[in-house]
Fold:
Amino acid sequence: EQISYLKMLKAASYLRNPDCIFLGTNEDPNLPVSGGHITIPVTGCLVSAIAMAAERAPICVGKPYKPIFELLQKQHGLDPARTCMIGDTLKTDIAFGLN
Structure:
């Protein structure tokens, strides 16, 4: 399903409850596009809008934050010294590698 104002309203309203956990996958603002003639807003824009409305910060679990790597490391026995990451966004991919 597509995002809608009603869905954002529901999300922000649920988050008024302090027991409701606010998870975000990432804070990427846009999708890199070859040629750069257009800007495609992505997840970070939606997470930011809901965070602003809810007046709460999310717990981000995707790149560049550690929880996603820790999960992959545990489930697949990854050794960070022997792991190569290939990504699409320099800002978050480099930060993820440094984490």
